[in-house]
Amino acid sequence: MKPHETADSDPWHFPRPDLAHTYLQAFDLKLSSARGLFARRRMGKTEFLRRDLLPAAVERGYLVAYTNLWDNRSSPDAALVAALAEALEPQGVKAIVARLAKPVRKVKVGAKLPGGAEGSLEADLAAPSDRSMALREVLKQLDKQKRPLLLVIDEAQVLASASHADFAHALRAALDIRKERIKVIFAGSSETTLREMFARASEPFYNWAALEPFPLLGDEFVAFTVKLLNTMARKTLTLQQGKHAFSELHHTPEFFKRFVERYMLYQVQGEASALAHTKASVFSDEHFLKQWSTLIPADQAIITLIARGESDLHGVAGLARLSELLEKTATKNTVAQALRRLQAANAVTRLGIGDYRIEDEAFAEWIRRKSTGRR
Q: Is the pTM of this model over 0.85?
């Protein structure tokens, strides 16, 4: 099944047709051919792309291709080629398979091919050179299509890795000459890496797309969810209780849905119990202890100060607090090196001069609880 197709509609999905229309309208007016969106994980970005944007694009006559590179971090090139191939009609897919029969080691074909086989096309390519060839072949087939293509690359920051630089350059060159026919959404959860992708002159996609924050869900989403819950629940939930839970869960849609699920299953225990259970689950030791243990002491200390909302990490007061945590004298170089490592690991993002934020708010809350002894 293709990403924009749904066998069963999800009643809990909060539709955002106006936002989808805004993005597509900009493409239709030829104001731009690419857009970059960032939002932290679990904030509803991927659900919007798959359930709102792609179906809206299909209704407007686009072919659509979607891939989440986080699931294919070691070979995003193969994943992207497979996504593009799935956008084609069956005859186009067959043509690609035929042309790549020699270099392709394994090809599994579905995508509603004759005979009723369904699923996805996965290409396991023998070498990077074969993947570049595959990209060229699939784009040749797309060039023959009458309809334009919307390509959505989720967790696009994976392309910024040095190991994927050759493919990223090839992709940039291929898309450059097809701006009229191929529109691209680069979406990701690492604001720092995405900004470097589009703002650093040495990067393949330098200055290629405007980068902006993805609009986050708020009170309308809570009201929609609470209203639906109350049509099914024996014990209704007030909108105020819903807003309180959403706030306590750091306005994270995925966590709020877990709260709703817990409440629905154990209504007699009440809203406070459901919220406490959800917080204990999503901010648990088991979930984040492994991530914490990979950090060296200096990085643990810096990320703890960021989680607490400390500013001016390079100043006298900041260095004093850092030295206290490390139990040894810290310098500005200690801070700089730790921040560089944390940003490279996509654990922390830089919002401005001296202003940093932990990418995963759930991890940030776990660190706050750990540093204060709360559970």
A: no
